[in-house]
Design goal:
Elements (H helix, E strand, L loop, with lengths): L1 E5 L2 E5 L4 E7 L4 E6 L13 E7 L6 E5 L1 H45 L5 H19 L2 H12 L3 H36 L1
Antiparallel strand pairs: 1-2, 1-5, 3-4, 5-6
Helix pairs in contact: 1-2
Length: 189
Amino acid sequence: MFIIKTKTGDVFLNDKEMVNVTHNRESHTALLNDSTITFFQRSPIEHVESVIYINEQTAKEWKDEGSELEYLRKEVASLKLELQCQRIISQRAKERLRQLGHECVQWVQYHHEEMPKDLCERMRTRGEEEKAYVNDCEDRTYRYEYLQEHQKPEEIEADEVARLNTTIEAQAAEIRKLKEEIRCKEADE
């Protein structure tokens, strides 16, 4: 059995009736040649995401995933690596901030005779605030609020690219359909 996954749903084909199934990843189409002899070739299936073949005798599955899925897997792996790097950078920054807050409090404690009283108080307060910020994980709250208010420019760009790809794919499908109609009309003449 062939299972052709498209954007609009799945197409199930009996493998015993098919002579040839060709998946064109670039144009997102599948061409079918069945065992019945016809004068006209079948129209291609449009918006194909992947093709799966399941053999009844061995019950093994063969799957042809589209290039878009392969690209997305690579992109996810790349983003995971970048996120891991950013977490390490964030942890180091938190540790440095925690250490700075601690040192501010210690400087005031050991050198308060050498410093003006209002400067000592501001420095101690600021050091305690920064230690509390890191220790109370306020950065998580900030991150959540920020993500709620902003969409990353890459996401906006990716949405636009996806929209343009969909438009191109739809136009290519329309061109193929019109060419098929022209071929049929020429055959009728």
